[in-house]
Amino acid sequence: MWEKILISKSLSFQTTQPSTTDERRQQIKEWMQLCRAGTLAIFQGVDYNTFCHQPHPEFSPVGWHLGHIAYTESLWLLERCAGKSSLFKQYHSLFAADGLPKGKRVHLPTLPEVICYLDTVRKQVFDYLEVAPLDEQERLWRFMIQHESQHSEIISFLLQLENWSLIISQSSLVSCEEEMTTDKGQQIIEIPAGEFVMGNDSIDALDNERPAHRVYLDTYWIDRYPVTCGDYRKFMQAGGYQNPEWWSLAGWEWLQANPITQPLYWLEDSAWDNHPVCGVSWYEADAYTRFVGKRLPTEAEWEKAASWDAAAGVFCTYPWGEEEPNTHLCNYNYVQKQQTNSQIQNRTTAVNAYPAAKSAYGLEDALGNVWEWTASWFDGYEGFEYYPYRGYSQVYFDGQHRVLKGGSWATRPWALRCSFRNWYHPGVRQILAGFRCASFSP
Question: Is the pLDDT of residue 295 over 80?
Answer without folding.
Answer: yes
